Amino acid sequence: MTEYRNKCEFLIGIGVNQEDKTVGCRLGKYKGGTCAVVEPFDTVHIPAIAKKVVKAFQDFIRSTPYSVYSPETYAGHWKQLTVRTSRSGHVMAIAYFNPQKLSKEELADLKCSLAQYFTEGLGRSSGVTSLYFVEEGQRKSPNLEDLPLEHVAGDKYIYEELLGLKFRISPHAFFQVNTQAAEVLYTAIGEWAQLSPDSTVLDICCGTGTIGISLAKKVKKVIGIELCQEAVQDAKANAQINELNNVEFYCGKAEDVVPSLMNVLAPQNLVTIVDPPRAGLREFPAGLFSSGVVGGEPRKHQQTKEVEASDSKVILAIRRAEHLKKLIYVSCNPRAAMNNFVE
């Protein structure tokens, strides 16, 4: 399958041949001694529309007086571009920029120029329907979700069709990066769950609610739990968009919400679906993850007793739920999943 990624994160740096302000993929890891960035135009997994946005954005930043941010000297401005696309033809672009000591007026002028470029200027042909700008100084958190977003042009959301349902996607909300594969996955989950009209589905780490919503018409009730507030807002909106009134979503840490919910749901025909982040059902300390080129890459870590105690809340709640009829665990990292299975 080619051109399957609906979300791509591109770094901004110096090109292989010293081309300034190059948008694309880093050729190696920063800790390996290279910061060179190569354009993504020859890749097969990135959609043509995303490449078109990259080219337009690269042309724009090269026309500005602001330099590339350097992770070595901490000087410079342009840092990253995230592009999200959908089969519905929607395109979201998110520009990350270190303001350094620029005045509010200079930043306002830059945002205005960026918006005008993609709505009325040469960048209009790239098809961007939603444009955001992020002022990213020295991070207090390793998570991009914690950075303040400013909507500068177009729609606030993009929408995707999946299994005959419509889903709203906001800038930081999780959505499976391969939509066609997600349809295969969710269909398999529905078959394995062996659901009935009196089933209750508990969807842990539910993101924008795609799994639970795709099953909602087959069951009595769906309850989703998600840490990202943006994703929960999307999930609630998605339930309304699809006219579902048997779906509820809670924002919070799984280790805080799951134990009490398990007790409340005890009398019901309960099926639990767990779709955790790459690291599995774990709460990691801040600073554990670093941004990748097209997705994040977990750093090596040392488990602490506090983290182990936090992990056990969710896992123990699931293990102690005698009324739980079936548990389906969705994982993109078998090694992390195996740790959870052992626990």
Rg calculated over all Cα atoms = 21 Å
In order across it, which strands form the biggest sheet? 3-2-1-4-5-6-7
| Portion of residues within helices | 25-40%
Mean pLDDT: 85
- Assign the structural class, choosing from mainly alpha, mainly beta, alpha/beta, alpha+beta, or little secondary structure: alpha/beta
For the secondary structure, the number of strands is 16
Straight-line distance between termini: 35 Å
Number of helices: 8
Low-confidence stretches: 283-311
What is the oligomeric state here? single chain
What string, H for helix and E for strand, traces the elements in order? EEEHEEHEEEEHEHEHEHEEEHEH
Overall form? elongated
Strand content: 15-25%
Biggest β-sheet description: 7 strands, mixed
Please write out the topology.
Layout: E1 7-13, E2 22-26, E3 37-38, H1 48-62, E4 78-85, E5 91-97, H2 104-119, E6 130-135, E7 149-154, E8 158-162, E9 165-169, H3 179-193, E10 199-204, H4 210-215, E11 221-226, H5 229-241, E12 247-251, H6 254-264, E13 269-274, E14 289-290, E15 297-298, H7 305-320, E16 324-329, H8 334-342
Parallel strand pairs: 5-6, 10-11, 10-13, 11-12, 13-16
Antiparallel strand pairs: 1-2, 1-4, 2-3, 4-5, 6-7, 8-9, 14-15
Helix pairs in contact: 6-7
Description:
There is one protein chain. This protein is 29% helix and 24% strand. It is α/β, with parallel strands linked by helices and 343 residues long. It starts with 6 loop residues before the first strand and ends with a helix. The relative contact order is 0.10. The model is unreliable at 283-311 (pLDDT under 50).
